[in-house]
Amino acid sequence: MALYKSLVRPHLEYCTSLWNPHLDKDIKLLEGVQRRATKLVEGIKDWSYDARLESLQLSRLVTRRVRSDLIETFKITNNMYDINSELFFQMEDGEGRTKVA
Question: Residue 98: which residues within 8 A CB-CB, separation 6 or more?
Answer without folding.
Answer: 90, 91, 92
